[in-house]
Amino acid sequence: MGGLWYPGWRGVAFCGWRWIHPGSPARAAERVEPFLRPAWSGTGGAERGLRWLGTWKHCSLPARHPALQPPRRPKSSDPFTRAHVEEWRRRNKTTLTYVAAVAVAMLGASYAAVPLYRLYCQTTGLGGSAVAGHASDQIENMVPVKDRILKISFNADVHASLQWNFRPQQTEIYVVPGETALAFYRAKNPTDKPIIGISTYNVVPFEAGQYFNKIQCFCFEEQRLNPQEEVDMPVFFYIDPEFAEDPRMINVDLITLSYTFFEAKEGHTLPVPGYN
Amino acid sequence: MSTAMNFGTKSFQPRPPEKGSFPLDHLGECKSFKDKFMKCLYDNHFENALCRNESKEYLECRMERKLMLQEPLEKLGFGDLIGGKSEAKK
């Protein structure tokens, strides 16, 4: 707000926003003044607070001149502004009530979200990830999307306590969505005792993982390798043809399939990646 | 893979295979088919489309030796290879 220049007050009344040194003795009284008023309204409280810090100087001189008084400067001695003060207080209280009600409603909504989401999942059948239902007869009818070549790269990992040699037999394979593909891993048990392993897999990028359908593989079931035995483990899979129509997959050209073998022991449950 | 703080990020949900797990080929009965398939892949720069015949033969070998449940080949996506003629390769 610009300066309120009033010719009669020229000498002292540069009433505007200006910086004032906190230590200035000339204004000390005016700084203290609002806090001594019993009916100190909350309106413009921020200004008062800052004013106390000496940052902004909202000139109080016009307060002594009723005609110039801006409506935001109430004094309890003035009956006209007392009504205003009451009005602002009432409005503040109403606002505060509304804000508190909204906060409580938000809290309640967050609690209600859990059963509501469960209900939503039941009705729409989306179990956490939107997957187009795929039945085995879909494989019969699916048409390969020949112009979208994807590179599938293979990775093999073994848990530290499992002493198998486990590796893929091909580093990558080029497929198109809608085409079934076969890939091989090899596992060797170099020890002298039979070891039972169980594996899980992972696909990155995660969003592409929903299109990665395995028809048959060697995961999630215990596989026993005798001493010094080496076996080929096939994975028969396909990429859902709807992959080519997903706009989020436009830039996805490389999908990595990663298998990890763990040792199957009594009482151990397979650590499944991700949150369930 | 996912740390404790990643509540908002998507995580991967592994799904079991549709037809279950392949029994292990302990006796290596289909090893020759597998070798043929791998050789085809190596020769063709790992393009799967060119080696589908070999993969079909490998799966047929498995089915014959009871290492895999018998399935009509159409259900495995080899409908175009059934007649013995290979499809037009990409």
TrEMBL record, chain A:
Transmembrane segments: 96-117
Superkingdom of this protein's organism: Eukaryota
Alphabetized Gene3D superfamilies for the sequence: Ctag/Cox11
A GO term for molecular function: copper ion binding
Compartments in which it is found: Mitochondrion inner membrane
Primary site of residence: mitochondrion
InterPro entries: CtaG/Cox11_dom_sf, Cyt_c_oxidase_assmbl_CtaG
Protein name: Cytochrome c oxidase assembly protein COX11, mitochondrial
Organism: Macaca fascicularis
Automatic annotation (TrEMBL), chain B:
Gene Ontology BP terms: mitochondrial respiratory chain complex IV assembly
Cytoplasm in keyword set: yes
Keyword Cytoplasm: yes
Pfam families documented for this protein: CHCH
CHCH domain span: 30-64
Family: Belongs to the COX19 family.
Name assigned to this protein: Cytochrome c oxidase assembly protein COX19
Annotated source species: Macaca mulatta
